[in-house]
Automatic annotation (TrEMBL):
The keyword Nucleotidyltransferase does not apply. GO terms for biological process: chemotaxis; signal transduction. This is Chemotaxis protein. The lineage of its organism: Archaea, Methanobacteriati, Methanobacteriota, Stenosarchaea group, Halobacteria. PROSITE patterns: CHEMOTAXIS_TRANSDUC_2. It comes from Natrialba swarupiae. Residues 335-382 form a coiled coil. Residues 514-552 are annotated as: Disordered. It holds the Pfam family MCPsignal. Transmembrane segments: none annotated.
């Protein structure tokens, strides 16, 4: 029975295409011949291996048992054995058959194709190359131990044969024994014995021993050479598998690179367009920002003008308050002078009733003047309130136009009343003067006593004239207030327009910013697509399940 058939029919074998395998590793007859020549394997080695057949057959089962006993002591190796569709006993039988096939092979193309299949089967079981090569160390020990015993027997046989031949040549058995003793250098060196130079092994015996040892070592070398050739083929199958995996991985990477290049091209172009759009939007935003800055500068200038106008209003209001206080003091002085005049006129009341009547009319005129003064005081307060309202309303941009209309109406009303009051004062003064003339004509007989009263009335008239002048100053101050208020109104109008421009610019900036944000989102999406595509370069494909898991 051909032992090679025992390890070529497992359930993993249909996963191995031997013809494709040997073609891939370049294992043709020429390659086999070169490898044999390179390691020195020749026909003499084939004959020596054939001579070892009986030894290998006799020890095959024991070597297989010891081989797997050692193998199963290691967890990683045990896991590989468990993955094999064969049981341990079947594997032992395969191992025994492989051992015998070392001595019974024809060492031709078919022999090495079978060795290639054996190496591929181990690779399909995911046995690491280090373990496959390393197990030969155990194999060597098991084989060389038996070969060592064989060489030792050969040496003993050679010694016995030499002794037998020597015995036949000697006439006496004792001489043969002595010769053997002498050959091994164990003589006593007495008389009649060889000299010290002759104590060494005889040349023929040494040659016989050396020849036996050399013959045994040549057997060992022949066995190591065929195992080395087997190992070369097995390693080639591993290297071929690694190369195929590398080629497939390289092809996948190359194909993936093409796909990535194709997929990335469009996002990159979109990214370029989005970047260009972002740059344009940024430039537009820069222009809007410059316009906004210019508008803000105009707002600042208008606000400065408005501030100056408000300060002017405040200053004018201060002057109006001063004039109002002065008017109040003058009015008080006029009242005192009038009181003095009444005292003097009361002294002459009995002398001239007409003078008393004239004085009464004069008192009524003075009362009218007091009312005018009161209205001027009220007007002064309204002027202060108007200034305050104008200042408050200046801070309101939305209702600025309506407030300025109210202020203008108030100013016009104030001016009309002031004019009427001034006319009333003039008329009252004229009436006082007329009454004074009538009083003088009616009371000529009391001129001497009225002189003192006249002086007092003169002082009253002076006070009233001062009041008139103060009223005029108040009117002029109110005109300044009106002018300042108009200026403030114009400033507020310009400010409102400027603020509107700022608001418009802000709207444009907001629109541009929104567009920029959208462009940035597009850019981000493009970058995400690029990232997803590029990440595929580092994605490893899902590995196929090993063949030993696909066995039915």
């Amino acid at each position: 029975m051909n032992p090679e058939r025992s390890f070529g029919n497992g359930r993993l074998n249909h996963f191995v295409d031997v013809d494709e395998l040997v073609a891939s590793i370049g294992l043709d007859e020429e390659e086999i011949a070169w490898r044999k020549e390179f390691v020195g394997f020749d026909e003499a080695d084939e004959r020596r291996l054939a001579d070892l057949e009986s030894l290998l057959e006799a020890n095959a089962d024991q070597i297989a048992d010891e081989f797997y006993e050692n193998l199963l002591e290691h967890e990683e190796a045990h896991a590989i054995v468990d993955r094999s569709p064969k049981g341990v006993e079947a594997l032992k039988r395969t191992q025994s058959a492989y051992l015998v096939s070392l001595a019974t092979g024809t060492y031709d193309q078919a022999y090495f194709e079978n060795r290639a299949r054996i190496g591929k089967l181990h690779e399909l079981l995911d046995m690491p190359l280090k373990q496959y090569v390393g197990q030969y160390g155990v194999y060597y020990e098991l084989l060389l131990t038996r070969l060592s015993e064989r060489v030792q027997r050969q040496v003993v046989d050679a010694a016995e044969e030499w002794a037998h031949e020597r015995e036949e040549a000697e006439s006496e058995s004792t001489r043969a024994i002595d010769g053997l003793i002498d050959a091994f250098g164990f003589g006593d060196g007495g008389e009649g014995r060889p000299s010290e130079d002759e104590l060494a092994l005889e040349t023929s015996f040494e040659e016989a021993i050396r020849a036996a040892i050399d013959d045994g070592m040549m057997d060992v070398l022949a066995l190591l050479r065929i195992i080395n050739l087997d190992l070369q083929i097995a390693v080639d199958t591993y290297v071929d598998s690694y190369a195929r995996d590398l080629e497939r991985a390289t092809e996948r990477r190359r194909q993936l690179a093409y796909e990535v290049e194709s997929d990335v091209q469009a996002p990159i172009e979109e990214l370029y367009d989005a970047s260009e759009l972002v740059a344009n939007r940024a430039e537009s935003i820069s222009g809007h920002a410059a316009n906004q800055a210019s508008a803000v500068n105009r707002v600042s200038g208008e606000l400065e003008d408005q501030s100056a106008a408000v300060e002017e209003i405040a200053s004018t209001a201060d002057e109006v308050r001063s004039e109002s206080a002065r008017t109040e003091r003058l009015a008080a002085a006029g009242v005192e002078s009038a009181d003095d005049a009444l005292d003097d006129l009361e002294a002459i009341d009995e002398a001239a009733e007409q003078t008393e009547a004239a004085v009464e009319r004069l008192e009524e005129r003075i009362d009218e003047i007091d009312e005018v003064v009161s209205r001027l005081e009220s007007l002064s307060e309204r002027t202060g309130l108007l200034a305050t309202n104008a200042k408050i309303e200046s801070t309101r941009s939305d209702a600025g136009d309506a407030t300025m209309g109210v202020i203008a109406d108030e100013v016009r009303t104030f001016a009309e009343r002031t004019k009427q009051d001034l006319t009333s004062i003039q008329e009252a003064v004229e009436g006082v003067r007329a009454d004074a003339v009538a009083t003088i004509e009616a009371t000529e007989e009391t001129v001497d006593r009225v002189d003192d009263g006249t002086d007092s009335v003169r002082q009253t008239v002076d006070s009233l004239e001062a009041i008139h002048e103060s009223a005029q100053s108040t009117a002029a101050g109110m005109e300044d207030v009106a002018t300042a208020t108009d200026q403030q109104a114009r400033s507020l109008e310009v400010t409102a327009e400027t603020v509107g421009d700022v608001s418009t610019a802000a709207d444009r900036i907001a629109d541009a910013t929104e567009s920029l944000a959208a462009a940035s989102q597009e850019q981000t999406a493009s970058l995400r697509d690029v990232g997803d595509t590029v990440s595929r370069l580092t994605d490893d494909p899902e590995p196929e399940p090993p063949v030993y898991e696909r066995i039915e």
